Every structure is written in structure tokens, then in C-alpha cells.
Amino acid sequence: MKSTISTETLHGQPVIQVRTAEGAEATVSLFGGQVLHWQPAGGRPWLYLSDQAVFDARGAIRGGTPVCFPQFAAHGPLPRHGLVRTRLWRLIHQREVDGQVMLTLGIDSDDTSLSVWPYLFSLELTVNIGGNRLDMELEVTNTGADALEFTAALHTYLRVSEVELAELHGLKGLHYTDHCDGGARKTDPMPMLQIDDPIDRIYHDVRRPMVLDDGGRALQIDQENFTDVVVWNPWEAGAAALADMPDKDFRRMLCVEAAAVKTPIALNADAQWWGRQSLLVGAN
Q1: Max Cα separation, the chain?
Q2: Are 104 and 229 within 8 A, CB to CB?
Q3: pLDDT of residue 112
Q4: Does domain 4-162+225-278 have CATH number 2.70.98.10?
Q5: Domains of the chain: which residue ranges?
Q6: What separation in angstroms does the CA of 38 have from each of 46, 215, 281?
Q7: Is 257 designated active site?
Q8: Strand-pair partners of 17
């Protein structure tokens, strides 16, 4: 059996549908350059996509793996989460290697981005879909003559059966910034993170894998060159305030985001940077 790759539409927006030879599935939106759906072979979906997500080619799509660049959240003067999650990306190439499907999407600076952020850039997002893993690598190239700085994230929405029962391992002893407590700096003493309130934390200097235990199924979360991890859930009041999320869906998602926030990335002219997040099913 061969892998299949097709360009289709989802709620009027162009997407790439993938089914690998081993039976894994993925949907990648060209609008926003984000993975909307990923289901490993023989398993259940691991990405959350809101049933009320808006596909109007203007606002961001709630769920999947939005790309935040060149600003994460409101950490700067630009629109929240930057300039590329509400623009149309292009498919650069696609290929199948040893039963895995690799897609590379791209987007560049243009007159609209230059009007609010006066730097030239080129982004590539490479998505690799295997039978039991999803790898996403963001590459940033400074194509201008001036040095630039940016923050970035892969804003990954993970689907869980019940967020209060989920356990995120691997953050013990790490320092974090708590944005639910006015940006206080803290250290996590717990062997696992369990969610029973709103959470908006940025963990710093993350060097080891994390494991999300979702009611007996496990997902290993690795990252390279991204030094921060954002953990976010809006909880009941926060979800109710979001027009594009069902009120109770805070129970069905947990964002675990590979990020570069605390220390902005500096790029000289013609320089490149890359960061990767890998999701691996069944690891402990």
C-alpha cells in the first residue's frame, strides 16, 4: 500500500490530506501553514481542532499547530502571535520516503508584513508524518540586509480525553513564568503537572523530553532549538470567552508548545535558524 497525498478543501480553505502507507492520517492547512489533524496508525487523533473554528481566511484557526512568528502572544508591539498564522502559505514540495510523507510549506515577507515589521524573511515549515510520529520543523531565513530578532512558537493544541486526568511529565525542577500570576517567576517542584485551573506558563531552558499521559495512552514530546515550553489551558471562564471554542472544550485540550520566547532569536543578514517539535506515540 502506498501513501496518498491530495489537495482538497475544508470549509472552503485549501488543505493537504495525507494517509501514510502505515495508516497514519494528517490534514495540513495552507491557510496559516498549520497541521489541523494528526492520527497515528491504529490510534486516535492527538490534535485538538475546535468544532467552532472559523475558516474565513481572515482570522486564525482555533486548534492544530498554529505558527507564531515573529512575535509570540503579546510579547511585543505586533498583532498577537505575529504575522503568519492568518496568511496563505504555499506548498514547496511533497515526497514519500520509506512510508513516511514529508511536506514543506513556505511563506515570505511581503508589503503587508513590511508595513508593520520592516524586515525581510522567508519561512519554511517541514511536516513529516510517520506511522507513529509527527515532526514539525520551522526554518527562518533573514533575507534582508539588516539584522533582525524574533520570538516564535509551534502553538500545539493536544487532544485529551479529560484534562483533569491528564499528566504531563518532564517539567520537574524547571523555572517558569506564570502569566496567571502576573508573570511571577517560579520553579516547578512536582513530578508531574496536572491541570485543575487556568494555566498559562512558559517553562524555560527545557532540555529533556516530556511525556503526556492521557488516560493510559502516552505521547512523548521532544524539541530541538526551541528552549521554552508553553503550557496553556483557558479553563471554564476563558473558554466561555472564546467565540471559536465550545464552552466545555477546555476539558478536551491542552496546549504544549515548543517556543523561543524568553531569549529572542537574533539573525544577521542571510543567516538561518531552525526549531523542531516531535510528537512520538507510545513512548514512556
Answers
A1: 53
A2: no
A3: 95
A4: yes
A5: 4-162+225-278
A6: 6, 19, 11
A7: yes
A8: 6, 27
Q: Which amino acid is at 133?
A: R
Which residue in the list 96, 155, 167, 179 is annotated as catalytic?
A: 155
Q: What is the pLDDT along the chain (284 residues), one digit of tens a residue?
A: 789 999 999 999 999 999 999 999 999 999 999 999 999 999 999 999 999 999 999 999 999 999 999 999 998 999 999 999 999 999 999 999 989 999 999 999 999 999 999 999 999 999 999 999 999 999 999 999 999 999 999 999 999 999 999 999 999 999 999 999 999 999 999 999 999 999 999 999 999 999 999 998 999 999 999 999 999 999 999 999 999 999 999 999 999 999 999 999 999 999 999 999 999 998 65
CB 283 within 8 A of CB 234: no
Return d(Cα 197, Cα 163) in angstroms, integer: 10
Alpha-carbon distances, residue 16 vs 7, 33, 36 (angstroms): 5, 10, 10
Helix (H) or strand (E) holding 257: strand 253-267
Output the CA–CA distances (angstroms, integers) from residue 201 to 174, 232, 253, in the order listed.
Answer: 11, 7, 15
Closest CA to 180 of 157, 195, 199, 155: 199
Residue 181, all three cell numbers: 500570576
Annotated catalytic residue 169: no
What is d(CA 5, CA 208) in angstroms, rounded to the nearest whole number? 33
Global pTM? 0.97
- Structural contact between residues 76 and 151, judged by C-beta atoms closer than 8 angstroms: yes
- The three cell numbers locating residue 150: 524574533
Nearest CA to 142 out of 159, 128, 122, 125 is that of: 122
The one catalytic residue among 37, 81, 137, 257: 257
Contact 210, 169 (CB under 8 A): yes
Measured CA to CA, the distance from residue 251 to residue 236 in angstroms comes to 8
Instruction: Give the Cα separation of 207 and 225 in Å (integer).
Output: 9
